[in-house]
Amino acid sequence: MALKFRRVKKAFGFDKTKTEKYVVVPDRATPVGFEYLCKEIALVSGVNEGMVRATMFGLVTSMKTYLEQGHTVQVEGLGSFIPTFNAKSSLVEDDANADSIRRMKLRFVPSMELREMMNKMRMDFNDKDSTNDAGSSSGDDDDDRPVIE
Q1: Is 14 helix (H, G, I), strand (E, B) or coil?
Q2: Of residues 116, 120, 142, 117, the one with CA closest to residue 129
Q3: Quick one: CA torsion of 110, 82, 36, 115, rounded to 10 degrees?
Q4: Contacts of 26 (CB under 8 A, 6+ apart)
Q5: By C-alpha distance, which of 46, 41, 44 is closest to 59?
Q6: Buried b (16+ CB within 10 A) or exposed e, 18-29
């Protein structure tokens, strides 16, 4: 299997001239739903689907517990989940406090195994859904794709 990509024409926000330029973007596949993922895990692992669902629920519940305590959670073969945030800076020491936190985030660092797989992934150009020199496309990514269930 390969990751498909396409070419779009768009203006970048950091470019003050708003000149439209060509850039390649991933041609996102259909998202895989939880039900389908559990069925696939059951098929590959030989564990029944109910046990897979219970295990996945237990994994997420346990991860929430540790992340809320500020721990990094490492899942072997998958990667690390790291709680972090964005905060405003201040010239006054006392203004750098909990109120200066703008947004909580969860950072994901893939395992070496996943990084190696991504580095070896084959790429396929999708010329059908790409721009051409005669026309242009907005280049907006749509999130209303169907889910594999």
Answers
A1: coil
A2: 142
A3: 0
A4: 3, 4, 5
A5: 41
A6: eebeeeeeebee
CB 72 within 8 A of CB 80: yes
Whole-structure pTM value:
0.71
Token code pair at residue 24: 């390649």
- Residues with Cβ < 8 Å from 125, sequence gap 6 or more? 4, 5, 6, 7, 24
Examine the pLDDT at 138 and tell me if it is beyond 50: no
Phi, psi of 144 (to 5 degrees): -100, 40
Instruction: Over range 7-33, report the average pLDDT.
Output: 84
Q: Which residue has the tokens 């195994």?
A: 113
Does pLDDT of 45 surpass 60? yes
Strands 79-87 and 73-75: antiparallel
Most confident of 15-19, 84-88, 130-134: 84-88
Q: How confident is the model over 53-74, as a mean pLDDT?
A: 97
